[in-house]
Specification:
By secondary structure, the chain is α/β, with parallel strands linked by helices. It has 22 helices and 10 strands.
Length: about 475
């Protein structure tokens, strides 16, 4: 028997079973949210292993023989001052990073946010050889400006990259092979630079999931479970996702109602976590068990295609640490902010993109009347030059004549229409083009993903 121990937050998906018949209910949730829920896959006979479990697998039949959980998310706060928690975090974070990248050259993507900045501070403090980069949208907000300032302060070599228009069509088949169509294709923007990554030496150190672990979920601590379910559904169901899914559910003649189905499933999974003393901790745990492995982790495979990766926030010890921290100190990114101030005060003075134009010392002023001058100037810029503010990757990959030709070529093909009615594809493409591109961009992107999966599924059937 093969023994497998899955991480508390797995960075890789482990499949067991066979790829045989299509799981249409699972695909409906995928269409609504952009990720598969729990152990679901495209196939009824195939499932993924659960996080935080020990498994015995029959290698011949490729099926689970036994399973047992070794970690359950909980909320067991240990009261101590914020200053002590920050020191504990700093020691743990730096220990994990040293263990993960000791003796290696490191590649760190930098942005205007908190997670990568925290990593940069740790890399600088530990004197680790670090290559850094940032990317921005062609015609979008210049995120590379923040990365450059952070890199200069840390004295890291820095590269400035730009997400170019229409890169997707040259890489989409390769991306489909890498992530097996378990994520839609406009989110992994790193695919635009995969050839550049392959030319760099070193291991990626990625800050994924720090923003979830080190923040509250924005709900009252005593929020009832049924209302927690509603909060989660609002968080995970994308614009246009519910509409598309209802159309698929109806066309496939699936019994029952999709909204009731997803509510029942979320409720069941949330009850299984069973953290009764903190709604924020329970929702954070739900996201870490069901969202991180099936959404965030899927596109880590793009980085892994060319380089090894390390993820300090994914470390089991970080998850255990979070369970001991009082919620009052997790809200508002306090721990990471105070860590940055403690290790590198000058870093805290660089603008926090989410709170621009304010930094980590004065971001609490991002409210009326103190932020009015910035808001007025920013609105004027957008009004005068609206075409200069690309905010989302799909705008560069779906809009324009050449993109339209490529998108229609992928969406309207005979194999795809055999199981997704062409009327549905035409309907949502028309809504995207003529009604509301922002609202229906997710619908079109999911149809594109399912179209690429059709190619993979048809090849599997032939085998």
């Amino acid at each position: 028997m093969a023994k497998i121990k899955t991480d508390i937050i797995p960075s890789k998906t482990t499949f067991v079973g066979e790829r045989k018949t299509i799981n249409k209910k699972a695909i409906c949730i995928f269409a609504a949210t952009g990720f598969f829920l729990d152990q679901d896959t495209y196939y009824n006979e195939l499932q993924v292993l659960k996080p935080g479990f020990n498994y015995e697998i029959d290698p011949v039949k490729n099926e689970v023989v036994s399973e047992s959980s070794y970690f359950n998310w909980h909320y067991t706060p240990i009261e101590r001052p914020l200053s002590q928690i920050v020191k504990e975090f700093g020691h743990l974070f730096e220990t994990i990073i040293k263990e993960q990248v000791a003796g290696k050259k490191v590649i760190v993507p930098l942005s205007g946010g908190i997670d990568s900045r925290t990593q940069a501070v740790a890399m600088s403090y530990l004197n680790i050889s670090t290559h850094s980069y940032s990317y921005a949208f062609d015609g979008g907000h210049n995120e590379t400006d923040y990365g450059k300032k952070i890199a200069n302060l840390c004295e890291f070599p820095f590269e400035e990259l730009k997400v170019s228009k229409s890169y997707l069509w040259d890489t989409i088949d390769r991306l489909a092979r890498i992530n097996e169509c378990y994520s839609e294709f406009t989110h992994p923007r790193q695919m635009a630079f995969i050839d550049e990554y392959s030319n760099w030496g070193g291991v990626f150190s990625l800050g994924h999931w720090g923003d979830v672990l080190f923040d509250d979920m924005g709900v009252p601590e005593d929020l009832p479970l049924n209302e927690q379910v509603n909060v989660i559904i609002k968080k995970i169901v994308k614009k246009g996702g519910m509409s598309l899914t209802k159309s698929l559910w109806k066309s496939w003649e699936i019994e029952g109602d999709f909204e009731n189905y997803i509510i029942e499933r979320i409720s069941h999974l949330l009850k299984g976590i069973n953290i009764k003393n903190s709604a924020n901790a329970q929702i954070r745990a739900f996201k870490s068990v069901y969202w991180a492995p099936r959404w965030t982790s899927v596109n880590l495979s793009v980085f892994e295609e060319v380089r090894d990766i390390s993820l300090p926030y994914y470390d089991n010890r970080m998850c255990e640490f979070i369970c001991s921290v009082p919620e009052k100190f997790l809200s508002g990114r306090q721990i990471q902010i105070e860590y940055i101030k403690m290790r590198m005060p000058a870093m805290a003075k660089i603008t926090w993109e989410e709170q621009r134009p304010f930094n980590l010392y004065n971001y609490h002023l991002n409210k009326t009347p103190w932020n009015l001058p910035y808001r007025i100037i920013n609105k004027l810029k957008r009004t005068i030059n609206p075409h200069l503010f690309v905010q989302r990757n799909w705008e560069l990959q779906f809009l324009g004549k050449e993109n339209e030709l490529q998108l229609k070529k992928r969406l309207f093909n005979n194999k795809f229409s055999q199981w997704i009615p062409s009327e549905i594809t035409k309907q949502y493409y028309k809504l995207f083009k003529e009604e509301d591109a922002v609202f229906y961009s997710h619908s079109v992107s999911m149809l594109l993903t399912l179209s690429l999966f059709t190619e993979i599924f048809s090849k599997n059937k032939q085998k």
